[in-house]
Amino acid sequence: MSETLIERRARLMGPNVPTFYREPVHLVRGEGVWLWDVAGKRYLDCYNNVPHVGHCHPKVVEAISRQAATLNTHTRYLHDLVLDYIERLGATFNHGTTQAIMTCTGSEANDIALRMAQAVTGKTGIIATDNTYHGNTALVSQLSTRKPPIGGYARNIRLVPAPDSLRPVGGTVEGQAEAFAANVRKAIAELEAEGFGFSAMLLCPLFANEGLPDLAPGFLDPTMAAIRAAGGLMIADEVQPGFGRSGSHFWGHDRLGFAPDVVTMGKPMGNGHPVAAVFARADVMAAFRDAFGYFNTFGGNPVSAAAAMAVLDVIEQEGLQANAQQTGAYVVERLKGLSHPLIAQVRGIGMFFGVEFLLEDGDPATTFVADLIEGMVARGVLLNNIGKHRNTLKMRPPMPFSRENADLLVDTLAQVLAETPVLR
Ligand code: PMP
After folding, report:
1. Which of 26-40, 96-110, 133-147 has the lowest mean pLDDT?
2. What confidence score (pLDDT) does residue 387 get?
3. Which of 2, 83, 322, 369 has the fewest beta carbons under 10 Å from its own?
4. Is residue 159 part of a domain?
5. Does 360 fall in a domain?
6. Does 196 lie in the same domain as 246?
7. Which residue among 317, 333, 366 closes a domain?
8. Which residue ranges run through the membrane (predicted)?
């Protein structure tokens, strides 16, 4: 029998490139919110935030093609497009983070951000939430490792319990902000006592990988006070919340109402083209240059800048942030109309939704959610899971998602819910 694509992938790429779903999907084409596999089956994409303005958006494709046909070279020559981009995006921040280092991935951006904080403070202690993911460099992967690293966990890193809607830190929803901050204060004290000192906290303002909890604006106020009192930096990882995804705001940190010292971003920024960035104040940039220095061959090259600029154009021209807010609210309303005994909570922020499932005894319905996902894929709807126990359905579609798309998503989910058995 001839070798399958899965076997060939394993033979050529080894075991380090996971795929989604029990039957990995072989996609060959995308357009807007739609994807097609090799057999011609069409899928509604309710998962991917990378094609932020829609798969293969013609304006982004055109910008990439035009610039690729004109000039692409490494980043040590002068070019105005990247400067126009940084100026334009920098103007969306209201806390002075107007200078940028361009990179190719969110991992690199977070790595730089953490080292910036170490450069500013002269200290090495880092705080993040548990059950998170911020990337895969040697430094950043220590924040989200699922296996003990060789040599053991780094002592300068502390992971505090992530906020949670159903099992709040500290036991009550009302007390969660203070309880979260208390754990941050404790971690800072430990880092100081052990001689590392405290340099930064890094978090996603939606706590998306952690489960997308419902949090009121101001949630991080006591945490920010603790960070400021200790002289450390706050780094907002906007890889998932950024570029209008939260609907009400262009940036997740503005939605939650806190002012980070450094902002990192990636995934949706180039609509699939690998471009990412770190935005920081001039004083932070200067400290980083003095302590480390930095160069990135591809980060912010002319083609990347053209792709990123076209994404901003489309977000504005097509009113995609407003769509995230309006259509997003409709999706939540429809999801809340679903009836199933295991649905514990429906959550939504802009164009990002979670439905958490618990078994009758209150345990996470992890297997049930895995089965639901497979059922949805079989019926042509792509989504996935989030959260510590992977018992929350994760839906994060491209931003042009319409009410009609929302109806298809929720109607399909209703069918799959009805036909998926509850097994422990
Ligand atoms: N931060 C967060 C919150 C992410 O979810 C991810 C990727 N899933 C990253 C950083 C890493 O980005 P990249 O894969 O581009 O390195």
Report:
1. 133-147
2. 92
3. 2
4. yes
5. yes
6. yes
7. 317
8. none
pLDDT digits (tens, 9 = 90+) for 219-231: 999 999 999 999 9
Q: Is residue 424 part of a domain?
A: no
106-134 pLDDT, tens digit per residue, is: 999 999 999 999 999 999 999 999 989 99
User: Hunting for tokens 């497979």 — which residue is that?
Assistant: 374
333 and 313 in a common domain = no
Nearest CA to ligand 1 atom 2: 134
Tokens of 203: 């978090």
Q: Residues with Cβ within 6 A of ligand 1?
A: 105-107, 110, 133-135, 204, 209, 237, 239-240, 266-267, 276
Please give the order of strands across the beta sheet that includes 384-386.
343-348, 353-357, 392-395, 384-386
336: containing domain: 5-53+319-419
- Between the alpha carbon of residue 165 and those of residues 160, 169, 189, 212, 356, the distances in Å are 16, 9, 27, 8, 10
Kindly state whether residues 73 and 47 are assigned to the same domain: no
